[in-house]
Amino acid sequence: MTAVIEERASLDLSQTPKVPLARLVRVELRKMADTRAGMWLLIAIALITAAIVTIFSFAAPESEHTFLNFMGVTATPQGLLLPVLGILLITSEWSQRTALVTFTLTPVRGHVLTAKVIAALLFGFAAILIATAIAALATLAGGAPDAWQGIDLDDFAKFSLLQTIGVLQGLAFGLVLLNSAGAIVAFLLLPTVFNILAGFWSAMSEARPWVDLAYAQEPLFMDQNLGSDEWLHLASGFAIWVLLPFVVGTIRVLRREVK
Amino acid sequence: MITVEGLSKTYGGFTAVDDVSFVCKPGTVTGFLGPNGAGKTTTMRIMAGLTAPSKGHTTVGGHRYAEIPNPGLHVGVLLDASAQHGGRTGREVLTIGAKTMGLPQSRVDEMLEMVSLSPAESRRRVRNYSLGMRQRLGIAHALLGDPSILILDEPANGLDPAGIHWMRGLLRDYANRGGTVLLSSHLLHEVEVIADEMILIGNGRIVAQGTKADLLQTAGTFVKAVEADMLARALRESGIEAAPSGDAGLRTDAEPVQVGKVAAAAGVTLIELRPADGAGLEEMFLQLTADTQREGVVA
Asked: In the CATH hierarchy, which top-level class contains the domain B2-210?
């Protein structure tokens, strides 16, 4: 304990610097990894990425053992787990009620949310790096003769875009629902709901490219170029399922009473 | 210094906090006392910027809480010791706080030692902590940044008698060194022993506030006579309202000296005549809060 607290009615804040954003980002990264649930999610992302590449290398004919194919198979499991990471980064503050402490230490709530978005994106990029490294190892170990051919910066860009959208969608769903289970279920069910709707409702099957984000994302998985229509579809789905919930959720969190 | 001015908070038609004003001064412990649901926690949440007031405002150290940079270094807040991630260890909870505030890891060890959480306990997950251990952890968290103002909501809740004694000493010492302490409780005794100033709140309204001595003085006179009926009659005739209290005694708002004069004039044999603070603040607390707790009665 320190000696004497200076007696004064008014706090002198001139010597107190603001908390830098980089520090808040480091704290958010730590908060994701310092619980069993969070740690296992991170481990699971790495392990499942390695597992799917291994399975593919045994199951697929050798002619398909190209670097891009190895990369490609990691997209689906990561595309499911990274949004969950984004969701938990937000919702655990509410389900565990730590928001009370977090927002007391950082009363400008927007700073906390910014730090969370940056932390989630950093985890996303780390996952992409892991996928790239594992795909490269698999290619070195058992690739087809032309395994390294046709690799384009475009492919990395599309893969990164896909996972970035996933992370942001997770954050948005977490923000708008503030409930881990609800947000995860909503995220996982959404593409299925569209599948079912499009199956028996012709108006929906026509509108689908514009409103179904998963549908609009499909070209990002495949070795094809996106035309202006595909980009517009993607932008529309992004606006509806990422931007809108993100904005609504953010406004709510900024104003909401923290209990 | 904490100031609360004309603070109100309504939820739909329900008024949780109703025109509350008070000041907590440096070097004092202010007890915030009231039954559960009286509006203590809502008032404290508003102070820490977690709830927006409907009317009025609060400042902490002369500033709006949200305007204080790195507030953990100036204001220690403990609103709910149970609001911690059950999967983190106690040490990790403090580490996150220290890292956010930019403090060295050694500060975490110092605080753990100060609140008597052993190294083994600090490595256990918070979900395995008793409420008393969570309170100790919460107090350690509030003190991490060596703040000059403390806002603690029910910090004694769940502490064992030794823990409560320890906390009193800690807060007394803190205030003696110039710190400002606001602590709430729904138990009078917890606050009575340690607080210099007291604020009594019921149904969102402040029903009494002042120094402990002031509040005791307003509590009137306790008197007991051999001829109890004669005394009651004599007091009534002199225009002094008296109510039965304790074992055949009477309580009145009048000064002891007035009661003594009436008794002497009536030739009544007194066997007890003293300020009513012997009954403690307890009676007053119950009385003050009972009025506002009853349905339909607004003070």
From this structure: alpha beta
